[in-house]
Amino acid sequence: MNIVQTVEKKHMKAEAPSFKVGDFVRVEYMIREGEEERIQPFIGQVIRFAGAGIRKTFTVRRIVQNEGVERTFPLHSPRVVNVKVERGPNRRPRRAKLYFLRGRGGKAAAL
Amino acid sequence: MSNVKFLLARKKGMTQFFREDGTVVPVTVLEAGPCTVTAVRTPERDGYAAVQIGFLPARAKHVHKPQQKAAEKAGVGLFRVQREFRLDSPNGFRPGQELKADVFGPGDMVDVSGTSKGKGFAGTIKAHHFNQGPESHGCMNVRQPGSIGSSADPARVLRGLRMARHLGAARATLRNLVIVGVDQELGVILVRGGVPGPPNGVIELVSAGSPTLAARRRGEAAVKAPEKADKGGKKDARPAAKGAK
After folding, report:
1. Which of A94, A96, B55, B194 has the fewest C-beta atoms under 10 angstroms from its C-beta?
2. What is A37-95 written as a DSSP string?
């Protein structure tokens, strides 16, 4: 392991939440409302992981009012308080990036 | 002893970390020290006050003979890199003394110098931020510099006109960078933001606004001398080694 990774590791979450592409998750994200801090959940399906080390991010996709919404979170950000796996995919995804879900709705998007 | 702190380091790469509120701090990881004081310059003897430190131990064949003799005399090891840092007073330093990453602490402001990445012979667009020409409609002057002056009057190219030139691979200094972390165990210093040069490039760290930089700005040669000698040592190391055999 090179020295940059060693340094990085000290700032990473010791126990990063574990989940996979295709999982339906509930991301607990800390937001600020004026002085107050509260957790705002974002619920959807994980469609990709990107980056490595402390810069690793994941993208969650959900359908809001018939409109696809995707949000990308830094896995190691202290604002990402927790990621809970609500349920796994119905079928095991055969690829790492589930971009093909974007063009589909309803039953076709069922994975 | 003045409170100017200085150290040599190697750039290892960049990363980031999160503050508690989730904001990201970009940092450069520097493998700093250990450095050894190789010489102390005093106004009485040398006409100026400075401390010379060595970084990265070297074998004899990589070090110029005069540097070898000087090291022998001072009773210190041989180093690939030797630099001098100007101080108000060199009191408190003695040859052989070791300086490690912990001379700096989080929050310290530093001036960071290194040799920037070489860009080769760069055109006007890269070197001087000229605009590019249109790429379509038959234009053939996409990256050309264009006209460089008038005709019969003045019948010459004005001095200092910006043209293609060698770019990079020159000394570059960034001032007032903040040290955000020091790891004594790893010998690592984290500096906020980027630092000149390629990975493994040698970096000088000096407390912001130090006499070293002031002296450089005045153009005083004494500070530069060891640098030159060091470069010469590298270049001449091979023929010297052959001669020895």
Report:
1. A94
2. EEEEEEEEEEEEEE--GGG-EEEEEEEETTEEEEEEEETT-TTEEEEEEEE--SS--SS
